[in-house]
Write a structure and sequence with these properties.
About 60% of the residues lie in helices and about 10% in strands. It is built from 20 helices and eight strands. The radius of gyration is 25 Å and the shape is globular.
Length: about 475
């Protein structure tokens, strides 16, 4: 089962996956709790699961997925998942059920097994770290207490990082830091359990923050994402000697880039406020709260309206460029790569020639890629897209498609031909995804050429001027 999941996750869904610090996970038989950031729903758990080879981790996950059906709930428990009931979702009455989950997890820990938990309680809506819930430290100390404080429970900080939360063929990085030894807090826990829990959580949070990209400025989150993920981010990383293939190095470069903007906002604007984010809060909600905190600080000081600082002017110009792109349904790559009419005609011709193959490959691609996206759009939060695409395909759509393809092809042709068709299903799915991705780009380029030359020139001129300012700012 794990090999099957690994193939579809690492060979089909992602273009590349990277694991760092796996040596920091103690050998089997040591009580280990892995505590990770949570930014991509089920994909975070899969990343940790597939990174570990010599342990079978037990996962603490949101309880509502166990209610899909009784059979599915049993399946989740069989593969090591345990439900966590939350006040904001399942209600106060359901919280008592957590006692069973905690008991099972604590027994697994002192038995030398691995428990994976996401201290934020639920996934964030972007590259940031939410406030930690208290369950992680409580579980760890109660397990130690159950063992008479004779076993040292190790807490391994972990983080997941993604090149994109949407679409296929992105890149994923899983990092593990040096473990935190819980035994050094045992004496403090006996005297002041809450203080010990807070200190463990603080040390853990500091280690996870040091590994991940934590965008604290929610007001300009989208603008910072555009800057770091595009040409400016590429050039900034290249200037630091980081190659395009070095995804880990690019993460470190992005952290420095984002921190430059944050530091500038803090130094230029005395009323700038970083707010602590909670599970379930969206980017727009956090942006509103951040602006509200700043206005409150300005009003309390009686300073009147605060004008935009130089770095804020840069970010506002970036926002305006993004609004221009959105208004005309454009993409930044069009002004970076400068498509030509001749190239567009060739692209459309290639799409036309390949259209019969694309039509044939709609089975089962339409079900594998487009059906999960339909359900993902109805879910609360953008971060469920990968979960629906992976979970629905791995557990339902791909097995059924393979079985039906084999049966029909066997009846129509031969068993050998049917087996070959099943084996090439991954290539069929990747071809169809690439075909539709290219078609969308061609449509976008058609919109680009519908603009007049003057309109394209004006947008390009504004972009060049903005990028020159951004590059100069990042050199400081």
């Amino acid at each position: 089962m794990k090999s099957y999941i690994r193939f579809w996750t690492e060979k089909v869904y992602y273009e590349e996956t990277f694991v760092e610090g796996i040596e920091n996970i103690p050998s089997d038989g040591t009580p280990v709790m892995i505590a990770s950031n949570h930014q991509n729903s089920m994909n975070d758990a899969l990343g940790i699961l597939l990174a570990i080879n010599d342990r079978k981790p037990n996962f603490i996950v949101r309880a509502d997925v166990f209610g899909i059906s009784a059979g599915f709930g049993k399946f989740l428990r069989a593969i090591g998942l345990l439900p966590a009931y939350r006040l904001n979702y399942e209600g106060a009455a359901a919280l008592s059920a957590n006692a069973t989950t905690f008991k099972v997890s604590e027994e697994a820990l002192i038995g030398g097994e691995t428990v994976v938990i996401f201290p934020e309680g639920g996934h964030a809506e972007g590259h940031w770290l939410n406030i930690f819930k208290g369950g992680m430290a409580k579980m760890a100390f109660e397990a130690a207490e159950l063992a008479g404080f004779e076993k040292d429970i190790k807490i391994v900080p972990a983080c997941n990082h993604y090149s994109s939360y949407h679409g296929l063929r992105g890149r994923q990085l899983v990092r593990f830091a040096e473990p935190i030894s819980l035994s050094k807090y045992y004496d403090l826990y006996r005297e002041k359990p809450r203080t010990a829990a807070r200190e463990v959580a603080a040390e853990l949070r500091a280690k996870i923050e040091s590994m991940m990209l934590d965008v604290k400025d929610k007001e300009f989150y989208d603008e910072l994402e555009f800057i770091r993920c595009g040409q400016i981010g590429d050039e900034f990383a290249a200037g630091r000697g980081i190659e395009e293939s070095d995804f880990s190095g690019r993460l470190e470069s992005d952290k420095i880039l984002v921190d430059k903007f944050l530091s500038a906002r803090k130094s230029e604007n005395p009323y700038f406020r970083v707010i602590n984010s909670e599970e379930g809060q969206t980017r727009s909600e956090l942006s509103f709260l951040q602006r509200k905190e700043q206005k409150s600080a300005v009003a309390a000081d009686g300073a009147g309206e605060m004008p935009a600082t130089p770095v804020e002017e840069l970010l506002l110009e970036t926002r305006q460029l993004l609004k221009t792109y959105t208004a005309h349904h454009l993409e930044d790559r069009q002004f970076r790569d400068r498509p030509t009419l001749f190239g567009l005609v060739l692209q459309l011709a290639a799409l036309a020639v390949l259209s019969p193959m694309a039509l044939v490959c709609l089975w089962p691609s339409a079900f594998c890629w487009f059906l999960p996206l339909h359900f993902a759009k109805k879910a609360k939060g953008d971060m469920f897209e990968g979960t629906f695409v992976l979970a629905m395909n791995i557990l339902v759509i791909i097995p059924l498609a393979a079985i039906l393809t084999f049966i029909v092809a066997s009846l129509k042709f031969t068993v050998l031909f049917a087996a070959i068709l099943v084996l090439v299903l991954p290539l069929v799915l990747l071809f169809e995804w690439r075909y539709f991705k290219t078609a969308r780009e061609a449509i976008a380029d058609c919109r680009y050429f519908r603009l007049s030359k003057n309109e394209r020139r004006d947008i390009a001129s504004d972009r060049i001027a903005l990028f020159a300012k951004l590059t100069e700012f990042l050199k400081k």
